[in-house]
Amino acid sequence: MAKKLSLALLIWCVLLSSCQLALGKEASGKKEGWISLFDGKTLNNWKASENKDTFSVRDGMIVVDGPRSHLFYVGPVGNANFKNFELKADVMTKPGANSGIYFHTEYQERGWPNKGYEVQVNNTHSDWRKTGSLYGIKDVRGSSAKDNQWFTEHIIVQDKRIIIKVNGQTTVDYTEPEDVARSDRGRKISSGTFALQGHDPKSVIYYKNIMVKPLPSKIRIAVVTGGHGFEHDPFFTLFKGYDDIEYVEVQLKDHSEIFEDISDWDYDVIVMYSMTQNISKKRKDNFKKLLDRGIGLVALHHNMGSFQNWPEFKKIIGGKYYLKPTEERRGSTYKHDIDMSIRIADTSHPITRGMKDFKIHDEGYKYCGFEKDNRVLLTTNHPDSDKSLSWVRRFGKARVCGIMLGHDASAYANPNFRQLIARSIRWCAGRLD
């Protein structure tokens, strides 16, 4: 009896130790930033295209077995939109199987995904591009993995660099060139979700332990200018000197051409310092599509005078400088070179949290129009300016920040204004909460 109890106790200790080890690994993974995309039970956070029965769940695995189909991640992690990341998946192929893992892609009902890169899964299929290839871009002829054995495929994307590892061995280290051909724009670093490939009815593959680790990236901003003069070089110092922000200047020649074609859009935030007027229906629609994607928007100073004949623009940015009087209201006014005392009206918002009241030498606007649902951040009581000086709001999925300040070098050089711009960009990009 004592021997049986001792044996039972030993088995219990071994099981307990195994459970603790598993829990320890899980806790370690979470601590390191890894997030599971598959719970091992259902495909609730995944969406299959065309032949949906190609994918099923068995024994904690995603089983791929059937005609061509692609399984897209559509769950809550990262809003299913990843830019810089690490992805790991344990994979096992049956002999002759072909599959792949797509990244920076989007749901597509039929065919091979047009958007994103594919990382090959193929150990013995007739296709010469083997496991660990960046398909059609940087291909590998020999596979370091074997059929009927689990192996780990590890994908790392950081800015323009793509690294692929199989069982810890690097198979691809590729940096995408800046001049990627327009005809290949679908195969281009951007952002998007992941997809698993079901290649053909003879390809049987298993996936498990699908984990992602989002990686920090620089906030890419398009600083849009045009339609109003300004002190160019002092202005652009506002966007320099930050490790997390990089900018591109877009000088409008045709009022709004940045929104003509958004298929290659590669910016996280738009900073509008323009005061142009003409915008077509197509460009309006594309602009709003970007906001619906969650692209942030900072509307700065004289941008309040843009697109006077587009009433919805006021609802987007939260304010309007009226270049001419209307039947309902008088025209707005401005006054240069005034000294304003600025009050932090909302000390709890991430943009203004920790900021103190300050003074600035700038231009004042008065008799502007403002949306009633703006959350006002900064105010002044100067007689030559409206009370509201900065505010935030939402439009679609976008975070929007309006800032009336910012006329010339005196304002640009003010450290409080510089802080306000940087924090507004970060908040609009979803990096400041």
List the helices and strands and how they pair.
Layout: H1 2-31, E1 35-36, E2 46-48, E3 55-58, E4 61-65, E5 69-73, E6 85-93, E7 99-105, E8 117-121, E9 151-158, E10 161-166, E11 169-175, E12 193-198, E13 204-214, E14 219-225, H2 232-236, E15 245-251, E16 269-272, H3 281-293, E17 296-300, H4 311-317, E18 319-320, E19 333-344, E20 358-366, E21 369-370, E22 375-379, E23 388-395, E24 398-403, H5 409-412, H6 415-428
Parallel strand pairs: 14-15, 14-16, 16-17, 17-24
Antiparallel strand pairs: 1-13, 2-5, 3-4, 4-13, 5-12, 6-9, 6-13, 7-8, 7-12, 9-10, 10-11, 18-21, 19-20, 19-22, 22-23, 23-24
Explain what you see.
The chain is an alpha+beta fold. The protein has 2 domains: 182 residues, Jelly Rolls (Sandwich), CATH 2.60.120; 210 residues, 3-Layer(aba) Sandwich (Rossmann fold). The chain is 17% helix and 33% strand. It is built from 6 helices and 24 strands. It has a 9-stranded mixed sheet. Strands 1, 3, 4, 6, 9, 10, 11 and 13 form an 8-stranded antiparallel sheet that branches. Strand 16, helix 3 and strand 17 form a beta-alpha-beta unit. The termini are far apart.
Give the termini distance in whole angstroms: 62 Å
- The tally of beta strands, per DSSP, is 24
Please report the first level of CATH classification, the CATH class of the largest domain: Alpha Beta
How helix-rich are the residues, as a percent range?
A: 10-25%
Task: Give me the Rg, rounded.
Answer: 27 Å
What overall form do the CA principal axes indicate?
elongated
Counted up, domains total 2
Averaged pLDDT: 92
Count, helices: 6
